[in-house]
Structure formats: structure tokens, C-alpha cells
Design brief:
The structure is a homodimer of 220-residue chains.
Chain A lengths: L1 H25 L3 E6 L6 H11 L7 E7 L4 H6 L5 E6 L8 H8 L9 E5 L16 E7 L6 H4 L1 H6 L2 E5 L11 H11 L4 E4 L8 H16 L2
Parallel strand pairs in A: 1-4, 1-5, 2-3, 2-4, 5-6, 6-7
Helix pairs in contact in A: 1-4
Chain lengths: 220, 220
């Protein structure tokens, strides 16, 4: 019974996610679902993305998911973007319904790129579509190069794997080649970008990836 | 309906966990449920605990939970302890039934302390009792000092909060005082220990905590 109910929950969510996606496509909003463990640096990475302005020709929206607190949204509010904070209370992931509700507080007509910062969790968010065009997974060099093998669904579902905090590489035993091999073993179509939100390394490459993928979908 | 079913799943799990706990109490096995984000250093911390031998007068057992792979159990096999690896496949946490099954592969009569290394996830494992005497949460200084506020259930449920990788403190903007304030704001009864599995700092203090808590339960 448990399996049956969980399947129904996922199917129900997939239907809602598909409706969200139709709405995004209609309004030409390009949507990325950004996921990672707690503390991999999602918010700092988005802050640096806004600060460096490689996407300044696009109107940005951000939905921030957390179980509790508005700390992340407060950090991002300094920039000229539309922001909605979701507090899930208990659930360990965002789902289609939460994103549908959050979009009611956004002017989608005035957004070209919507970043969804999911709850910090390397497992469950990968199971719940929210209507995104692509999933993006972040992993910091502090977390260990074995993670793609240990949390395969997340890496399998993501179109882009971003290795964060590479400025801290000298202080870890993280093996960059090994983590890439591990990620490609799980998903051989994934793109991989090395990033430091501290030094700015990789931020332009990431912005170029976003522009190119948006162009794939909307032609501009 | 969804909420009702989830409540039934949790109640069913609580019953199984209570049965596990009775079995552990009967055999004088002291059980700690060790939880954290992926990459906070649970396995390395347990390796150092075994290597430093502050618990050498106790017979140790370890149950290692991962979604996939036996990498963690392989690291711990070098030490003279009983080990069982659980691969959950999909579930993002261990539960009472998984621990009950795993215990069939352990000689509990020959174990004084059982460490359960949960799946790397700062959310869901806190909701599922497994029959433990105490929950222990690890957080590395690489993850950010805001995490107790953002993932409150985990910190609320844990008797001990271990701050890991403190050797990396100089390379982060992690504020030790702030994280402690945040943790105590969520749970003012929690104990807190700073640890580096690299330098060995805090490992004796942790072993002393384990011995003292075991004595609270079994008198020796």
C-alpha cells in the first residue's frame, strides 16, 4: 500500500509539474531547478551570479525553498530581482504545487530566467519535478568525490553538475578527475563546470551555459 | 489522505523502533543514530573514533546506511568491529524495519555500543526512529553556521551536536559562537563538541560522552 500511495503522490505531482511547465513555456520563462546538499553554497552561488551581471540582459526571478527561515531570500534581496521564499515547514523538497502557489506572487510576464533554489537535500528533490526545463546539481569540494555514486538519482537527473568552492580544493583530499568520472558514470550526458563563488571562477561559463540552454528552448 | 497515510507510516515505524529498542536494552547494546548532510564526515569521524581506541574496552558494532554503494562499510572494515551495510535503494533515511533486518546479521550479544551511520540527509532521518538511545547530528564548518535554524527538527531531536572539520575553520567564514547560539536556540539541552577527524581534536571528548551516556542507561 505504501508503495502504491507514494506512486500516486509522484504521479499527481508530475501532472502539476507539467501544468507549471506549460505556463512557463507560454510566457517564455526559462526555469532551472537548482539542488544540492545543505551548505554546498547554492545561495552564495546565486548571489555571485547576480553580482557579476553576465545575465544582465535577462530579467531574473528566484524562488527560494527552505524548511524554515527567510535567511536565503534576505541575502538575495539586495539585487534587482523578483524573489519569493517558500517555507515548506516539514517537507524535505519543493513540489509542483508549492511552485504553482509561489508563481502567483511573481509577475512571470516580466521574468526571462527563473532560478528555483530547492531545499538543501541531495536525495528527495530529485524525485519531484516542479516544471523546470533543467535540473542542476551543485556539490562542493568539501563533500567528497564519492557523492555521485552514493546519491545517483540526483546526478542522473541533472543536465549540469557544478562543482562549487573550488578555492578550498588545496585543503581537502577531493579528487577533481575522480568526481568527474563518477558523475559521468552515472550520467554520461551531463555538463560539468567548476565554480568558486569567492573568486568568481566559472561564473561566466555558467552564465553562458544558461544562455545557451535558454536559446535551445526559446530560440533567444 | 496524504497526511493520514504519512502519519500511519510514522506510527508503524515508531512501533518497530520501540521493539528494536527493547531488544537493544535486553542485550545491553547502547545505540547511537548518527546523522548529517552528505559529506559532513560521518564515516571519517567513525574511522578516527575506532583508530584512536578511546573506546577499546567496548565491543563496537556499526550499521552503515547508504542509498547505493558499500564504500563507507569498506573503509570501516579495517577495524575489528562487526559491520553491516544497508543499501536503501530509494529511501532517503533508515527506518525501524531496516535496522531490525540488519540486526539479524549482527551478534548483538557481542556488542556494547552500536553506531548507526544514517543516510546523508539533514532532513528526513530525524523523522524516523530506529530504536536508538540518542540521536547525534554532525555539521561541518564548510556547511555554514545558519544550518541549525534552517533544519531545526534534526537539531531539536539530537542529544549531541558535533561540529566537524574544525581544522578547516580558517578557510571559511563559519562563526563557531553563532552556530552554537543557533543550535541552543533550537534545543537548549543539546551537548556540543568540536571535532577534527584529521588532527584528532575532540575525539576523546566524544568517546567520554559516549561512555557517560552509556552509563546513564546501563549503569556501566
Amino acid at each position: 500500500m505504501k508503495v502504491q500511495v507514494l506512486r500516486e503522490i509522484l504521479e499527481f505531482n508530475n501532472d502539476l509539474a507539467a501544468k507549471n511547465r506549460s505556463g512557463f513555456d507560454e510566457k517564455h520563462v526559462f526555469v532551472l531547478n537548482i539542488m544540492s546538499s545543505p551548505g554546498a553554497g547554492k545561495t552564495t552561488f546565486l548571489e555571485r551570479t547576480l553580482k557579476d551581471e553576465f545575465l544582465k540582459d535577462y530579467r531574473i526571478g528566484i524562488i527560494v525553498g527552505d524548511i524554515q527561515t527567510t535567511l536565503d531570500a534576505e541575502k538575495l534581496e539586495a539585487y534587482n530581482v523578483q524573489i519569493v521564499q517558500i517555507n515548506t515547514g516539514v517537507p524535505c523538497h519543493l513540489d509542483g504545487k508549492m511552485i504553482n502557489n509561489a508563481c502567483k506572487d511573481l509577475e512571470l510576464d516580466k521574468i526571462d530566467i527563473l532560478f528555483i533554489e530547492n531545499v538543501g537535500n541531495l536525495v528527495c528533490p530529485a524525485e519531484f519535478r516542479v516544471g523546470e526545463h533543467h535540473k542542476v546539481v551543485l556539490l562542493s569540494v568539501c563533500e567528497g568525490d564519492d557523492k555521485p555514486l552514493k546519491y545517483p538519482l540526483m546526478f542522473h537527473e541533472s543536465s549540469l553538475f557544478i562543482i562549487t568552492k573550488i578555492d578550498m580544493l588545496p585543503y581537502t583530499d577531493f579528487d577533481m578527475e575522480k568526481v568527474k568520472q563518477n558523475a559521468l558514470q552515472i550520467n554520461n550526458r551531463t555538463d560539468i563546470i567548476n565554480v568558486s563563488a569567492k573568486t568568481g571562477e566559472g561564473i561566466k561559463e555558467w552564465a553562458d551555459w544558461v544562455k545557451a540552454r535558454r536559446k535551445d528552448v526559446f530560440g533567444s
